Amino acid sequence: MDPGSFERELPSHFTFRPIDAGSAHAISAWQYDPPYDFYDSAADEEDLNELLDPSFWVDDYHAVLDQRSRLVGFFSFKRRAPALLVGLGLHPELAGRGLGREFVDAGLEYAREKYQPETFMLDVATFNLRAQRVYEAAGFQPGEIWIQTGRIRVEFLRMTRSAECAHS
Questions:
Q1: Number of domains, the chain
Q2: Domain with 21 in it: what CATH number?
Q3: Nearest alpha carbon to residue 140 among 148, 129, 132, 130
Q4: Which of 41, 43, 75, 129 has a Cα at 20 to 30 A from 34?
């Protein structure tokens, strides 16, 4: 993708497809500005290994393309009955540009049709207030806080919403 390509034209709709090696490797190279660099795939070896492992691609990972077939993000979906655990990432050039709500809504609609879950669940770092606002606008409610330990200690907020939740 040519640098700055999103400056000329922001995505107007999203298309989902199973992730492939090219998309997974492109996502693994994404670098976010601090403090969001916590979400860089290279920042967490376990996440990076999962992203690049084709055994996870079959049902879990989906590339998101825009109207010009540019890779603009990804979603992962993992069944945690009765909930569907949602993971997502928006291209670093698009983060913070007002596309979050539309992107999340598109991913939830796709997941609703594909998986028919009762509930959506996601985890967001507690410092990421920008994402929390997007998720709340999409109908998610804050829940428990939990701590991930490992290479670094990170506090997460679990958020949930009904798969049928109407939101404005």
A1: 1
A2: 3.40.630.30
A3: 132
A4: 75
**What is the DSSP secondary structure assignment for residue 122, as one 8-state letter?**
E
Contact 111, 119 (CB under 8 A): no
Residue 18 one-letter amino acid? P
Rounded-to-integer distance, Cα 60 and Cα 142, Å: 24
- Cα distances from 23 to residues 37, 65, 91, 135, in angstroms, run 19, 10, 12, 25
Element (H, E) at 34: none
CA gap 80, 83 in Å, rounded:
5
- Establish if 116 belongs to a structural domain: yes
Residue 105 is which amino acid?
Answer: D
Question: Degrees (nearest 5) of the Cα angle 119, 120, 126?
Answer: 135
**pLDDT-based confidence at 1, cuts 50/70/90?**
very low
Domain span at residue 113 reads 14-122
* pTM assigned to the model: 0.88
Assigned domain for 133 exists: no
User: Does residue 147 fall inside a structural domain?
Assistant: no
Q: When comparing pLDDT for 39 and 88, which is higher?
A: 88
Burial of 161 (0-12, 13-18, 19+ CB in 10 A): buried
